[in-house]
C-alpha cells in the first residue's frame, strides 16, 4: 500500500509517495537523493543513519516514513547556514574527528542532539549528581555518543570535538 507524505528535509518541503513499509532512511536516500544519512547496519545498532527528527536525534533506519508525515528532518547536510559550518561540523574538522568519514554525518547529527539534551539538563547514565547541572566531561560525552559507532576508532578525537562545540554554545 502506498501513501502520500510530506517531509521537510533540511528546510525544504518534499512531497513523495512511499510504500507504507519504507523506512525514513530509505525515503531520504532512495527517494529524495539525500545521501547524508548512511545505511550501516539497518538495525538501529550503529548510528550511521542518525538524523534530527523534529529537533531530536533519531535513527532513521528504524522509523517508518509514513509515521513522520509533516516532520522536520535535519541531516548533517542541512546543519550549515548561510555558507557557515555548524559549530559541531567546525569542531569535527578542527579536531580531525573522522577518518573514513562514513559514520561522520550520523556522528555530527548525534553530537548536535547530545549538546541540546545536555543544555536542557538531561542526565545520562553516568551523571553523578542528578540534582546539579551535568558537566560535559569525557565520560558524559562518551556515554551520550555511545550509540554511534566508528569502525576507524576516531573516538579519541570525536569526544573532544563534541566538548569543544558544547563549550561554544
UniProtKB/TrEMBL annotation:
Every 2Fe-2S ferredoxin-type domain range: 3-79
A single MF term (Gene Ontology): 2 iron, 2 sulfur cluster binding
SUPFAM superfamilies: 2Fe-2S ferredoxin-like, CO dehydrogenase ISP C-domain like
Domain of life: Bacteria
Pathway named in the protein's UniProt entry: Alkaloid degradation; nicotine degradation
InterPro entries, sorted: 2Fe-2S-bd (IPR002888), 2Fe-2S-bd_dom_sf (IPR036884), 2Fe-2S_ferredoxin-like_sf (IPR036010), 2Fe-2S_ferredoxin-type (IPR001041), 2Fe2S_fd_BS (IPR006058), Aldehyde_Oxdr_Iron-Sulfur (IPR052914), Beta-grasp_dom_sf (IPR012675)
Keywords: 2Fe-2S, Iron, Iron-sulfur, Metal-binding, Oxidoreductase
Cited PANTHER family: OXIDOREDUCTASE WITH IRON-SULFUR SUBUNIT (PTHR45331:SF2), OXIDOREDUCTASE, IRON-SULPHUR BINDING SUBUNIT-RELATED-RELATED (PTHR45331)
Protein name per its UniProtKB record: Xanthine dehydrogenase YagT iron-sulfur-binding subunit
Species: Blastococcus xanthinilyticus
